[in-house]
Specification:
Layout (H helix, E strand, L loop, with lengths): L16 H20 L4 E4 L3 H12 L5 E5 L14 E2 L6 H21 L10 E5 L2 H17 L3 E3 L2 H7 L10 E5 L3 E2 L2 H14 L3 E4 L3 E7 L2 E7 L2 E4 L2 E4 L5 H5 L9 E10 L11 E4 L4 E6 L2 E6 L29 H10 L11 E11 L6 E4 L6 E5 L5 H18 L22 H12 L4
Parallel strand pairs: 1-2, 1-12, 2-8, 4-14, 12-19
Antiparallel strand pairs: 3-7, 4-6, 5-6, 9-10, 10-11, 13-16, 13-17, 14-15, 15-16, 18-19
Length: 440
C-alpha cells in the first residue's frame, strides 16, 4: 500500500503519577515530530533550482514548504558552475527566464541587505566564419529589437579591454554590456536565506528515497529520516532526478554530461573587471577569475554517464580520470590559440569538473507531470542553471500556486520527446551533441 495513514486518539487516562507524566511527554514529542514531517509542498534538491523554487513560492504566499537536501546546499552542479549570465543568447525561450534572474538578484540584495557580487562586466562575442558570423549578426539585430545593450567594437577597443585577445581583422566582435557572472554558491545561499525568512523549512542531510502516490493522489516522500507527508512535490535533484521519477514510470529526457573549465594563475594581461568572451568558432569562453582567467572549451563529444550509477556523494566518483584533466584543452589548443596566443605559455592553477544534465535540444525540463498530478520537475539545466534560476523558480511557483505559469513553458515540456530511455547509448549521444552545440 503506497499511502501512509496515521491516526491518533487522545491517550486514555489510565496512568497516574510519574508514569502518566512520562507518557504524555513522549507522546507529545512523537506528535510534534509527526507534525513537522508534513507540508503542502516538498522540494527535493538544494541547488539553484530547488532553492529558487522555494524562494519564489514564498513570494506567492506559500509558507507550508519543506526543502529536502541529502548533503548540503549547492554541493553538486551548482558549486561547479562558471556562473555566467547572459541577457541574450541563441535561445529566446531561455532568455526570457534568464532576464528574470537579473531582476531577482537585485530584489534579493535589497531584501537581504547583502551584496551578492554580481559582476556586470559584459561579454564580447566573436565570430569569423559564415555560419557563426550570421548567427552573431542575428543576435545583434535581436538585441536592438529587445532593448538589450549591444555594440559592435573594433580592434582598438578589444586591445584596450582585452589585451591578451587576438580577434583578427575579419572577425565580427559585439560587446553585450548587460552580461556578467556571479558566484553560484552565493546565489543559492541568498535564495535559501530569503526562503527561510519567509517560513520555508530547509532540512539538509535528508536523502529522498522514493515518491509515494495513492492512486493518482500524491501522499508522501520516503526519506532517510522517515516519511514526509505532502500534497505536491518538486523534483529539482539535478542529474539524479531520473532516479526519483523512473520508479513512477516517468523518464525525464536528459542525461548527465561532463562540464569543466580551467583557471589560470594571476597574470599581467588579465584583471578582475575584464569582459567575458565567447568565441563561437573556437568553441571557447572566458571570464575573469580574481586576477586570473577562467577558460572553458566545448568538446566534440563530452563524456556522458548513466544516472543509475551516480553515488549520492560525488566526492567518491571520478568524472575525469586522473592525468587526463588536460586532454580536452590540448585537443582544443589549435583553435583556441588563434584568439588566445598566450595559451601555450599560460600557467594554469586549477581544473574544475562536474555534471550538468543535458537534453537533446538544449532546453530545460520544466512543468507538471500529466500522468502524476502534483508532481513537478525543474531539471535539465543544460549548463544554464545559474542564469535561468530566477525565471525557473518564478515559472514553477506560478504553476504550482495558481495552476498557470507566468512564462511560456511549452518549449520545456517534460514529455516533448515522448518516451525515452535516458540510460541508452543513443540517447546519451544526443545529449552530448547538445553540449557540443552550446557555443553556437
Amino acid at each position: 500500500m503506497d499511502s501512509l495513514i496515521l491516526s491518533f486518539s487522545y491517550p486514555p487516562l489510565i496512568l497516574s503519577g510519574v508514569f502518566q507524566s512520562v507518557f504524555f511527554v513522549l507522546y507529545s514529542q512523537f506528535i510534534g515530530v509527526y507534525q513537522m514531517n508534513k507540508a503542502a509542498i516538498v522540494i527535493i534538491g538544494g541547488g539553484l533550482l530547488g532553492t529558487s523554487v522555494a524562494y519564489h513560492l514564498t513570494r506567492r504566499g506559500a509558507c507550508d514548504v519543506i526543502l529536502l537536501e541529502r548533503l548540503g546546499l549547492a554541493t553538486a552542479a551548482s558549486s561547479q558552475a562558471a556562473g555566467l549570465m547572459f541577457a541574450i543568447s541563441s535561445k529566446p525561450a531561455v532568455d526570457r527566464l534568464s532576464r528574470v534572474t537579473f531582476k531577482v538578484i537585485d530584489a534579493l540584495e535589497e531584501q537581504l541587505g547583502d551584496h551578492l557580487d554580481f559582476h556586470r562586466v559584459g561579454t564580447v562575442r566573436l565570430a569569423e566564419t559564415g555560419k557563426s558570423r550570421s548567427t552573431l549578426e542575428a543576435l545583434y539585430a535581436r538585441s536592438q529589437q529587445e532593448g538589450i545593450s549591444a555594440e559592435i567594437v573594433n580592434e582598438a577597443w578589444l586591445f584596450e579591454n582585452l589585451p591578451w585577445l587576438t580577434a583578427g581583422s575579419d572577425a565580427l566582435s559585439v560587446f553585450f554590456a548587460d552580461d556578467g557572472y556571479i558566484d553560484p554558491y552565493r546565489l543559492v545561499a541568498a535564495y535559501a536565506r530569503a526562503a527561510k525568512r519567509s517560513g520555508v523549512r530547509i532540512e539538509t542531510g535528508v536523502a529522498v528515497k522514493s515518491i509515494r502516490f495513492d492512486g493518482k493522489r500524491m501522499v508522501a516522500v520516503q526519506t532517510s529520516k522517515g516519511m514526509f507527508q505532502c500534497e505536491k512535490v518538486v523534483v529539482a535533484a539535478g542529474a539524479w532526478s531520473n532516479n526519483l521519477t523512473m520508479p513512477l514510470g516517468i523518464s525525464l529526457p536528459m542525461t548527465p554530461v561532463r562540464s569543466h573549465f580551467w583557471i589560470t594563475a594571476p597574470g599581467p594581461l588579465s584583471y578582475k573587471n575584464q569582459p567575458m568572451t565567447v568565441h563561437a568558432d573556437a568553441g571557447a569562453y572566458t571570464r575573469p577569475e580574481v586576477n586570473g582567467m577562467l577558460l572553458g572549451v566545448q568538446e566534440a563529444f563530452s563524456p556522458t554517464f548513466d544516472y543509475r550509477i551516480l553515488p549520492d556523494d560525488m566526492d567518491t566518483f571520478t568524472i575525469t580520470e586522473n592525468g587526463h584533466e588536460w586532454d580536452a584543452l590540448i585537443e582544443a589548443e589549435p583553435r583556441v590559440s588563434r584568439f588566445f596566443p598566450g595559451l601555450n605559455s599560460a600557467r594554469f592553477e586549477s581544473y574544475v569538473t562536474g555534471l550538468s544534465a543535458y537534453t537533446p535540444d538544449g532546453h530545460f525540463i520544466l512543468g507538471e507531470i500529466d500522468e502524476r498530478p502534483g508532481l513537478y520537475v525543474a531539471a535539465g539545466c543544460c549548463g544554464s542553471g545559474v542564469m535561468s534560476s530566477g525565471g525557473i523558480g518564478d515559472a514553477l511557483a506560478g504553476l504550482i500556486i495558481e495552476g498557470e505559469s507566468p512564462h511560456n513553458l511549452m518549449p520545456f515540456r517534460p514529455d516533448r520527446f515522448g518516451i525515452v530511455d535516458p540510460a541508452s547509448t543513443e540517447f546519451q549521444m544526443l545529449c552530448a551533441k547538445a553540449r557540443a552545440r552550446k557555443a553556437e
